[in-house]
Design a protein that fits this description.
Strand content: 5-15%
Number of strands: 11
Number of helices: 14
Oligomer: single chain
Structural class: alpha/beta
CATH architecture: Alpha-Beta Barrel
Number of domains: 1
Strand order of the largest sheet: 7-8-9-10-11
Radius of gyration: 20 Å
Shape: globular
Largest sheet: 5 strands, parallel
Amino acid sequence: MNLALYLEDLERRINTADEDNLSAQWLSFADCKLQEGFFAPSRPKSAPTLDWPDVNINDCIDDIDMMIYQQLKGVSDVLAEGGGELLSLRPNYGTGIIPSMYSAEIFIMPRETNTLPGARTLPGGMADIKRILDRRETDFSKALGGRVFYFAERWAELSASYESVKRYAYLYNPDLQGPLPLAELLWGSDLYIDIFDEPETVHAALGFFAGVMIDFFKKFHALCPPFDSEHGVEWGLLHRGAVIVRNDAAMNISGDMYKEFVRPEDQRILDAFGGGVHFCGKGDHYIEAVSEIRGLSVINMSQPECNDMEIIYRNTIDKGITIIGLPSAAVKQALASGRDLRGLVHSGASLAAWVDKASK
């Protein structure tokens, strides 16, 4: 694939003044300087000058240049649609990056789903986890881990000749998940029984995977520094801190279990980098415990309809913690109910302006 054609197209279409203005808006939001309403930025539309064909993600897993093209097409789409996200791309290998380093089998989804691959649980479950803990080996060159760093090196090589692309298309963190989802994926669903029967092993596994994540992020950031010394970008959304820990598996445990087993390891990661927590599904039962993490600056959640949003708001924006990527329907519902969003909520919809109470 001739990536130069597509990089040249992006270079022509990126307007530096627009990007600087959008970055300034995001920094103001992330630093809690917007006092009322919600944040919904946009940029002027910039149409492509050539055709950007769709590609299937399955064709990208073993082809670095195709994977980079797939990510650049996302950048092109944001420019074409006038989206309010910052331009961004990542090594897009799904949730199995770290599991694959520990011999988890990568499961390629059926082609018609055009969905990122997953990873299968280790056949020995807890016994295999104990072997990992005994060996305590980490090889970032293995499996999908190696592809992440190859992607980063290849991107540095390709983007070097394109000043605007290099400056404004941010290479952000791969999906490393979080200590609990990693343990669950490798251990299997028996983890939720063994958390009672083998709590010491669960603690050890979560601690080990938190350490692997910290080392991985350090290595990745040495190649691909975050937005600046105080901010990072994920999914094109700017936030304080450098990482967002994924906690999708925490919906399956109680708030007390989260505090005992998971929060200490999430704390270690945010102590090292600063940032936030993402969760899918239900999180209102442990959001108070999350909100007490030192250095937590941001929450991202994908399914507000599964939550009591007043509990979420009391433990995020009422404590000065921003929410990014909140679906626009949830924002509208909050405003209709008279809920003060305090200028700390980013609406996932790309609307045309900063919105405050006076313009509602």
